[in-house]
UniProtKB/TrEMBL annotation:
This is Solute-binding protein family 5 domain-containing protein. One of its GO terms (molecular function) is peptide transmembrane transporter activity. Pfam families: SBP_bac_5 (PF00496). Residues 43-221 form the Solute-binding protein family domain. One of its GO terms (biological process) is peptide transport. SUPFAM superfamilies: Periplasmic binding protein-like II. It comes from Salmonella enterica.
Amino acid sequence: MNNLNVAIDVFPYKEDIWSICDYSGEQIYSKLALPLFSLEKDEIKPLGAESFQQTVDSFRINIRKDLFWSNGDNVKAVDYVRAIKHICYDENNRYNKLLASVAKLGVETEIHNDHSFTIQTSWYDPFITQYLSLLNFSPKHEHDDDVFAGPYVLVKKQDNLYQLIANKYFMLDKNFPAVEKINYLLVEKDPNGEAFFDGKVHVSCNTAVNLKNYRIFTAKKNFVAAEGNLMMMLSPGIKFDKLPNHVKEILTSKINRNTISARYDNILKPVASWMSMYFDGSYYPLRDAIAYKKSSFIIDISYEDFYPNDEILEDISKQLSGFNIEVRKHQDKYGYWLSESHLRFEIRKIPQRNPVQIIRSDLSNISTSHAKFEKIKKLYSMLFTEALSSQQPEIFKVIDFYLRDHCLSLPLFIFPTGFFCHSSILENTLYAPGRKVLIKEAVSEN
């Protein structure tokens, strides 16, 4: 199979690889990317990097010598440094502060030769390789952002189509049969995979399936289930600090996730803490709210109009009404959280390996005047003490407890993804950053 058609339910709202931060955007741009590391089954492996050495205050990377831009030129160390600087200097970039340990970037970044560079860090950062596995930290060309170092090149971008062709100079998967052209087609609503069965696409959209039919789909030929990718959650909105404490207590302890899950054939997996996804799965339980104020309260919750967000918000609304809380819903445009809301209903990608990215995001919502701010800040700093590395799981658990206890972290359900896929495609390469989409040699094209 040389041409592959893949369904996408919405196209990205960011349009360059260094700022992409939405799920659909990551699916497309993963094929243009070449980050320094890859994260596979919770294990970090070199990708664009060949090797690295880390000390308390520095991080040295040696990149591979067989990396090439789509124009045939060699990818050099300076190209990765340029990308890191671009992200860290752009205050509008979601990942702007991710490499917070990088000290005076530019002044303290040393390029040794074409294939080696060192970044000085202000403190020991045990998560730096994990950050550098994000597709955003792909090399940036000196003159042309339309030149890519990943396995594919973006050649066409229209209202209903993103078209990629293979980077003929990409060497990492050179010994395997691979798809030469990928067409990402906009298919906004396709709950039963009709676009696949009608022959319009070879891969259906992996976030569009009707959850009530999910178990039926798993029994079908060509269906690929991926149950641990996304988390449904409530996160603080612009007006979060105006929530009364008794409302926060009800939100943290009285949403009955099991009842909602049952409506979807228990396909949605209830989650009370992010820690249930990591290490041994244990977390500290919250106390149950006992006393309720009878005064009514209107809570504003914003959301994006994707299935089944509105339905689940309706279920939550009905439950909260029993505590004299009225939910007022506000629909926001994809990627633009503009509503003045107390909370946002989000579907967020679940980070692999550990919850540091989630913790960082939740911590950013804490006011410096918060009663527990200094305590949580001190706990967070302990994650970056090399001598305490063996205690990371416990430190994460304590931080997670405080965040949940103050309604700053409200995970709800693991949202299962799944898609129909042509039998000749090696499905685990479809969305892997820095890898071509590979073809199963033993399977002939239908």
